[in-house]
Amino acid sequence: MTRLSVNINKVALIRNARGSNLPDLVQVAKDCEEFGAQGITVHPRPDERHIRYDDIPVLKEIVTTEFNIEGNPTPQFMDMVLQHKPDQCTLVPDDPGALTSDHGWDTIKHKDFLKDVIGRLQEKGIRVSIFLDPEEAQVAGAKEVGADRIEFYTGPYAEGYHQDREKAIHDFVKAAKKANEIGIGINAGHDLNLDNLAYFHQMMPGLLEVSIGHALICDALYYGLKNTIQLYLNRLK
Q1: Choice among 33, 43, 84, 151 that is catalytic
Q2: 8-to-41, 56, 99, 161 alpha-carbon distances in Å
């Protein structure tokens, strides 16, 4: 079964736009779980433009499925994750001012750094996933540095899906087979939506989890949050 983890960053962005607590981030997280989501994902950034660091302890207390914190492992980020101990930490090499994540780790170039960071997280019982481009060498490198899982950056797949979906998925399938072969779990996220999710799920061997936020929240404006989550879950059957 492939789990759906709902990224609630966009909900926090709307909340922060008016400086109040509307929408209520905690209630939305609870509702996502009640409506069938199997996890909650957040990605706090240094400027706190959406998820704030003070959101983390509150969410940690109320999430009853799996709590996944994504981010660049800066000292501040690492201190926060080690203190609050989510079920999973996804390491993402995004720049401080990046609008959104747009590439994966070079697990060969950053081997020593990743080994150290992953080891510190795993000592606290935190499962570690690292954001990765669909390259077999990088998958092998992720195994070398000790990651429990990889999260494929699916932006290129989403971009190429409507023009040639077979070509768009090709590298991901190859990399997924490599991951299965060497025994590392597979997550995926970025620009997955109601149009392209079912095919991705169908073609990807061993896909454990997808993390979806932007498209899901946009769809919820039209279909409502409960119906939208059910639509995404149906794509994962």
Answers
A1: 43
A2: 6, 12, 16, 25
pLDDT at 102 over 90: no
DSSP state of 1: -
For residue 7, the domain's CATH number is 3.20.20.70
Per-residue pLDDT tens digits for 124-181? 999 999 999 999 999 999 999 999 999 999 999 999 999 999 999 999 999 999 999 9
**116-132 tens-digit pLDDT:** 999 999 999 999 999 99
**Is 60 exceeded by the pLDDT of residue 97?**
no
- 201 included as an active-site residue: no
Q: Is 61 a catalytic residue?
A: no
Please determine, for residue 99, whether its predicted confidence score (pLDDT) is greater than 90.
Answer: no
- The catalytic residue among 33, 50, 66, 70 is 70
Taking residues 33-47, what's their average pLDDT? 97
Active-site residue flag, 84: no
Chain centroid to Cα 122, Å, comes to 18
Strand boundaries in the chain, DSSP class E: 3-7, 39-42, 67-71, 88-91, 127-132, 149-153, 185-189, 207-212
Give the per-residue pLDDT at 94: 82
Q: Give CA–CA dist 72/222, Å, rounded.
A: 33
| Number of domains composing the chain | 1
Domain span at residue 191 reads: 3-235
